[in-house]
Amino acid sequence: MNSEFYQQAISDPHSQCPDFLAALASDPQLKAVQQSQLQQEEAMLALFKSTPTPSDSHLAAIDAISEQSEKKQWSVNNYLALAASLLLCVVSIKYIDIGSPEYNQQLASHTLNHTAHGHSYAGVINTHPTMGQLNVQLASYGASISNVDDLLWNKDCDYEGITSAHLVYQDQNAKINVYVVPDSYEFSEVEKVFSDDRYQGTIKKVSNNYLVIVAPKGHDLAPISQRINNELHWTI
Description:
Layout: H1 3-11, H2 18-26, H3 28-49, H4 56-71, H5 76-99, H6 107-117, H7 131-139, E1 143-145, E2 151-159, E3 162-171, E4 174-182, E5 193-195, E6 199-206, E7 209-216, H8 222-231, E8 232-234
Antiparallel strand pairs: 1-8, 2-3, 3-4, 4-7, 5-6, 6-7
Helix pairs in contact: 1-3, 1-7, 2-3
């Protein structure tokens, strides 16, 4: 098994590389991973396409407002108001860039939002990740894994602008989201235990990463957390 082809099936399932196509033809499991990735992309595209388009009446109203704006005689006060608005916008952007992080400063808060956002696609389809494929992904985090039983899905995701590993396990009737987040981003707060009305989770500092495990609210996290801690090995 060539782990590079499995990684390519996830990162670039549309690739027409001759070697990749030949591997697809000879490896049913690789083909299944590629098809699953294509289905996920199609599902996301369908979601975007389902966004309602403006009605003719709305478009007409927008055109009417535009025409009225073009005909309107602008006074000195109009220009002063516009200039003040632009100045406020520039100052606000500068303040935001310098004074505060771009997204959630709290690791737990960002994790809850990230998990809720990925609910419709992360782990929905079992992509049958292999141990070789997982270890290729985890190597950049200084980690390796010794068991992939019940692992449904894996991908690298964006965590506050930091590439992090996202794994989804099946535990009984629940899907468990596991994140390996490098500690290079200085979160303002890192809670060991957190929850909201949908999810609950834990955060553990391991090596140069945060290991974040999230389950549906009310699910017993202890057994799956213990298993993941035993099966993940850290080399850094």
